[in-house]
Amino acid sequence: MPFAELVALARRAEAWILPGECLQCQSAVGPGDPLICAPCQSRWRPLPEPQCARCGQPSPGVADGCRVCTAWPDGFTRSRSAVWLDEAARVAVHHLKYGGWWRVAEPLARIVARLEPLASPGLLIPVPLARHRARMRGYNQAERLAAALAIRTGLPISSDLLARSRETPTQTALPPEARRANVAGAFECGALPTGARVVLIDDVFTTGATLAEAAATLVEAGAGTVEAVTFARARPPVH
């Protein structure tokens, strides 16, 4: 059977398999629509200005110095996130990360693609998932988001250059200091062209510890500069 006919057959099968309603509000959607409808997507809240020029943390006091990226490695020059990890965005991330709905990456990529680090040539590299979590989920959500971004931006993607060198406990319940220790030395990377510009892709920015450790590994492997984009950013704790 010709490839075009196989694609058409797969899309017809998908129309039967995929839900006929939005995953968040249960309103009707068609087979060609995203799994999260436009009104639900409109509830995702963009990050306000001003932001730290390096890590993208919104704060009226960023001119006085930013504590989020103080310890970031040289070469990790910029990170940006599209929306706050409020309830609407959190539900979308949950569907992508734990619900098996990898196609949720497509509407997420639509708004992530607008972020500045994706406006220049570079290599997209998703943050790798621990092997046992990848087996449990069936895929890496960061890789699915990176693949959707590659389609939208035309930038090349490499999903096998950066890997986990050891298994790490989940970061979810760890405070910032413990997060940094948890991911220390957790990555390894194949050789990169000297001076390559890399854009790391992940679903959520919490403290930046994982991105910073991955960026340090990429710089050691030959990257000239490393930037990062995520769909959502967790709000910092209130002290």
Summarize the structure in words.
The protein is built from 8 helices and 6 strands; from the N terminus they run H-H-E-H-H-E-H-H-E-H-E-E-H-E. The protein has helices at 3-17, 38-41, 87-97, 105-112, 131-137, 141-153, 176-183, 209-220; strands at residues 76-84, 123-126, 162-164, 187-189, 196-205, 223-233. The protein is globular, with a radius of gyration of 18 Å. The protein has a 4-stranded parallel β-sheet with strand order 1-6-5-2. A two-stranded antiparallel sheet has the order 3-4. It has 239 residues and is of the alpha/beta class. The chain has one domain (34-233): 3-Layer(aba) Sandwich (Rossmann fold).
What topology emerges from the helices and strands here?
Blueprint (H helix, E strand, L loop, with lengths): L2 H15 L20 H4 L34 E9 L2 H11 L7 H8 L10 E4 L4 H7 L3 H13 L8 E3 L11 H8 L3 E3 L6 E10 L3 H12 L2 E11 L6
Parallel strand pairs: 1-6, 2-5, 5-6
Antiparallel strand pairs: 3-4
Helix pairs in contact: 4-6
Quick synopsis:
With 239 residues, the chain is of the alpha/beta class. It has eight helices and six strands; from the N terminus they run ααβααβααβαββαβ. The protein is globular, with a radius of gyration of 18 Å.
The chain-level mean pLDDT equals: 85
What is the CATH-assigned architecture? 3-Layer(aba) Sandwich
Summed up, the domain count is 1
Order of helices and strands: HHEHHEHHEHEEHE
Q: Can you identify the CATH class?
A: Alpha Beta
Number of β-strand runs? 6
Strands of the biggest beta sheet: in what spatial order? 1-6-5-2
Low-confidence runs of at least 5 consecutive residues: none
Considering DSSP H and I runs of 4 or more, what fraction of the residues is helical?
Answer: 25-40%
Q: How much is the radius of gyration in Å? A: 18 Å
Q: What share of the residues does DSSP label as strand, in percent?
A: 15-25%
Give the distance, in angstroms, between the N- and C-terminal Cα atoms: 62 Å
Tertiary shape: globular
What fold name goes in the CATH topology slot? Rossmann fold
Judged by helices, strands and strand pairing, the structural class is alpha/beta
| Number of helical regions | 8
Biggest beta sheet summary: 4 strands, parallel
